[in-house]
Each structure stands twice: as C-alpha cells, then as structure tokens.
From TrEMBL:
Its EC number is 2.7.6.2. Keywords: ATP-binding, Kinase, Nucleotide-binding, Transferase. This is Thiamine diphosphokinase. InterPro entries: Thi_PPkinase (IPR006282), Thiamin_PyroPKinase_B1-bd (IPR007373), TPK (IPR053149), TPK_B1-bd_sf (IPR036371), TPK_catalytic (IPR007371), TPK_catalytic_sf (IPR036759). SUPFAM superfamilies: Thiamin pyrophosphokinase, catalytic domain, Thiamin pyrophosphokinase, substrate-binding domain. It comes from Chryseobacterium sediminis. Residues 143-201 form the Thiamin pyrophosphokinase thiamin-binding domain. PANTHER family: THIAMINE PYROPHOSPHOKINASE.
Length: 215
C-alpha cells in the first residue's frame, strides 16, 4: 500500500513531473488541472480535482466531472481544502508541486496553510530550485553535501544548533524580524538540526552549488 499522496496546486507548473507510480493518491486543485493538461499528465490517474471551479473552462474538465469535489468555503484556500480531503482519505504524507511562483501572496498563503497542518501531516513542497518543509525539533538530513541549506524561522526559533553546515549555529536564536539562517550550505553528507522551541521551515537546494553566499 502506497501511503503517500501527490498534490498539484496552482502556482508555477513544475519543470518536470514526478513518477506517479510512487503515490497511493493523486489530486489537484482546479487551477492546477490546466497545466497538468498542457504537460500531458495522465489525467485519468487523478483521484480527485477540488476547488470552487472559478477557472473551469468547460469541455476538458467535463470529461472528468466524476472526479470533481466542489469546495465553496471562501474562508479557506483551495490548497487548505484539498489537504482536508486528503487527510479524510487517510493520507498523512503529501508531496506538493505548484506551491511557489505566481502571485507571491499565494506562496506565503501556502506556507501558512502548511504550518496549520504541520502537526497532522508531513507536507513537502517541491519546485525547480529546492524542496522545503517544516522540520521537528530533532532532525537529520542525509545526502546533503554541497547543497544549499536555508533555515527560515516561522516566525522564530530558540536555541538552535546545527552540525554539518559551513556556518554552524550553536544554541542561537533566529527570528524573521532580526536574524534568519538562509543561504547556508552543507559541508558534510549528514546535516543535523536541533532546536528547543519555535518552528523552522527548511529549504534544501535541488542542485549542488559551487560559490555559496549567506545573507
């Protein structure tokens, strides 16, 4: 039984599509349906298409109308409502594509939704630059050497210690209003991160880097 779900949402379309065979459930929001169609994703593999269908264009979607789940609650985003459906279907690990790019308020909203669900689901975003997700208080990352590592406090994190990074942290505090930990990079294959309280959004670069900078 494949216990991970795949969800496409309406940000920038991925440059390449993941292997759909790795997932037990595949879904998209109504806006993402259009780029999946353009990319010739096998739409029959979608388990559901959710949203308010304000971007519905007619005949193409009508072919898959039996997969529609209408979600009209305007107090929640389409991403939020899709996660609720996936959780109800018994999946707690989700890979998300299309979470970044496009209008930046959508991107920030997607991060806030992921924060809301972080204790219920393991949500991992992917884009052309990195994968990013919230991490627990004790975390290890394998295969990290020469990859960009950014630690983003959400909104703050206390007593954070890292090992395996070029610029390590030792019992330090980060906050979006003072100091953040972006644009670091791994010098070891294993990176460990521990912190006492708060929340950390971890960004891991997809490609190896040669001349890193830190801000």
């Amino acid at each position: 039984m494949k216990d991970k779900a795949l969800l496409f949402i309406n940000g920038d379309a991925p440059k390449s599509l993941p292997n759909s065979e790795n997932y037990g459930l595949i879904a998209c929001t109504d806006g993402a349906f259009h780029y999946l169609k353009r990319m010739e994703f096998p739409l029959d593999k979608l388990d559901f298409i959710s949203g308010d269908f304000d971007s519905h264009s007619g005949s193409d979607e009508d072919m898959y109308q039996e997969k529609f789940i209408l979600t009209l609650d305007q107090d929640k985003t389409d991403f939020h409502k899709a996660l609720e459906i996936i959780l109800e279907k018994g999946f707690s690990e989700i890979d998300v594509f299309g979470g970044s790019g496009g209008e930046q308020d959508h991107f920030l909203g997607n991060l806030t939704v992921a924060y809301t669900f972080k204790d219920l689901m393991g949500i991992k975003f992917y884009d052309e630059f990195s994968e990013y997700y919230f991490i627990p208080n004790h975390f290890k990352l394998e295969g990290a050497k020469n990859r960009m590592i950014s630690l983003y406090p959400f909104p703050s994190v206390n007593n954070i210690t890292t090992k395996g990074l070029n610029w390590p942290l030792t019992n330090e505090n980060l906050s979006i209003t003072s100091r953040i930990g972006t644009r670091n990079f791994a010098v070891e294959d294993e990176v460990s991160i521990e912190y006492e309280s708060g929340d950390v959004l971890l960004f891991v670069g997809i490609s190896e880097i040669e001349y890193p900078t830190i801000y």
